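Subject: design request, 210 residues
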């Protein structure tokens, strides 16, 4: 059987973590523009392996893989990527594919992604998020990039604006998935729109009935 010379050259040039039995059909599928063949190779792989593969492709091949496999690039794959590679990939993803992918990401990763998106992509991502996550992301984006406020808002909690201190404390104590560190509780109205915030220190230092 005669192999494609371009495929052979690419396999020889790279020091790939994945074996040639995996990498060769990926390159062949990309060359042929065959989305079905590409999915057959990639679907059984772990997200970390797909991310590793993406990082080892050249930019043109990465863009082609995004076009052929875009709707299957979930958040777990994106989170495994080197940041610079991830930024390049999401810039070439269709808004609907990107929105589907970010459902799996932590809110701080979503903030990192949105900073480099165009308007249609940003709108699609925000619409895809759960209400609580969208509030966290929008609140975080309200601070300047790399500011202390932006960094602090990566770890926060959302609560209804009508709760008193006692209800807020009981809620915090009952949660199993609170951030390890957070500084503010964001207050929201019934439509999940931020209306203000209260610091954790103020909550803990106030009477329960306030």
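Subject: RE: design request

Done. Sequence follows.
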């Amino acid at each position: 059987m005669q192999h494609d010379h371009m495929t052979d050259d690419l396999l020889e040039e790279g020091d790939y973590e994945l074996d040639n039995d995996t990498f060769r059909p990926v390159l062949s599928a990309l060359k042929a523009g065959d989305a079905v063949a590409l999915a057959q190779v990639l679907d059984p792989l772990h997200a970390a392996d797909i991310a590793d593969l993406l990082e080892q492709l050249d930019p043109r091949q990465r863009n082609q893989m995004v076009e052929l496999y875009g709707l299957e690039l979930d958040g777990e794959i994106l989170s495994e990527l080197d940041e610079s590679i991830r930024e390049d990939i999401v810039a070439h993803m269709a808004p609907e594919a990107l929105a589907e992918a970010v459902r799996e990401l932590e809110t701080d990763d979503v903030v990192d992604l949105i900073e480099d998106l165009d308007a249609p992509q940003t709108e699609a991502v925000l619409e895809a998020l759960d209400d609580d996550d969208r509030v966290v992301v929008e609140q975080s984006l309200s601070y300047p990039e790399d500011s202390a406020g932006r960094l602090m808002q990566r770890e926060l909690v959302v609560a209804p604006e009508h709760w008193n201190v006692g209800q807020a404390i009981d809620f915090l104590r009952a949660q199993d998935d609170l951030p390890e560190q957070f500084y503010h509780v964001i207050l929201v109205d019934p439509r999940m729109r931020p209306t203000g915030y209260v610091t954790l220190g103020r909550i803990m230092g106030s009477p329960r009935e306030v």
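Residues 1-16 have pLDDT under 50 and may be disordered.
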